[in-house]
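Reading group handout, session on sequence-to-structure problems. Before we discuss, look at one worked example. The prompt was deliberately terse, the way you'd type it at a terminal:

> structure Kynureninase

The input record follows.
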Amino acid sequence: MHFQNTLEYAQHLDHQDPLRSYRNKFIFPKVNNKEVIYFTGNSLGLQPKNAKNYVDEIMTDWAERAVEGHFQAEKPWWDYHERFSEKLAPVVGAKASEVTVMNTLTVNLHLLMVSFYRPTSQRFKIIMEEKAFPSDQYMIASQVRFHGLDPEEAIVEVKKREGEQHFRTEDILQKINEVGEECALVLMGGVNYYNGQVLEMEAVTKAGKQTGAFVGWDLAHAAGNVELKLHEWGVDFAAWCSYKYMNAGPGNASGCFVHERHHGQEDIPRFEGWWGHNKERRFLMEPQFQPEPNANAWQISNAPVLALAPYLASLELFESAGMPALIEKRNKIVAYLEFILKEVAGKVGANFEIITPKERGTQLSVFLHGQGKELFHYLMENGVVTDWREPNVIRLAPAAFYCSFEDMWRFGQVLKGYFKK
Ligand SMILES: *Cc1c(COP(=O)(O)O)cnc(C)c1O
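And the output record:
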């Protein structure tokens, strides 16, 4: 594609964009009375305009019906979470029965590890990537210690090669084969939060399964961003937060995937609660737990409907736009952003190194050789919201739902302005 760094050209791309109307379904913060250029949808997605209505609906039901709202609300609360499965399944490439929404991400990974990290004296190792998101490091190390094992021995990290900024699939596969029959679990981030790399989840899953291990994915930066086929790939379990690309609001509930091969097992190790009990018999208050025949068996508590409401509003947008269209726009807008970055860097003589490899989703991580936090602050003051990662990286993630090609062009103008100061 032959891009141009002009306003007319950017507007032409917006005009051709089949998803352009979605921008208007989100609320943009303002700086200097102008809507910001928002590059941090990978950290906290913007608020869908409909989110508030969905929360209000529950507040009203609560006021007017109180306890009756559990069964008689417009969207009854007792099975509110079940509304998510059909809508979330296509986002992650799953059957509806394999998907549920509950708790928060790290909590869910802990709960899923109860089922899928069952170390024995022969098979006890966990393979993960080096410098994983800190919560994953803490979570995995604490699980290992919980089983009375030593993280130094039980955790095997796949490393980047000297001088390289991304993981090589061949190195991941080799590590899995090397650990072989000692491997109890492969658990990695599907999209790396720092460099934006999309791992080859299908190949890694296959290799992990071949050793006889369980394979799970932290999809915090993958859900709503990249194509996922969790069912087809044979992934055992996965979880993701909903506040990044899923636009469900700060700290909101996490989605979970459990492959259907693990459903309907009464004897699987699992931390259980009444919301995982056979829903037809839940209120009979029986002593014996009967799991739901699907991923809902991992539910514990009654659904936090006030939190779930904005997630539902957001998922309806995913349902109407569809992941294929979002991915197509993502590819184009990220390519345009890359073009603008290189164009401007060339003009002003700056060295911006994109450390994100070609296996990428929405995010470009840019190493700012010779530029520091001053540039980051300048961008923020001029209405460009990015984030800073030590030592010298800004992450730019133009979410396909609400970022425009014109935003990318305007960003280039702000960047140029910095060097003209
Ligand atoms: C954002 C993120 C988390 C956050 O976990 P919470 O439990 O939702 O606070 C975890 N893992 C990864 C890889 C993330 O990017």
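Points for discussion. First: The chain is about 40% helix and 15% strand. Second: The pocket of pyridoxal-5'-phosphate is lined by residues 104-106, 133, 135-136, 189, 193, 218, 220-221, 241 (CB under 6 Å).
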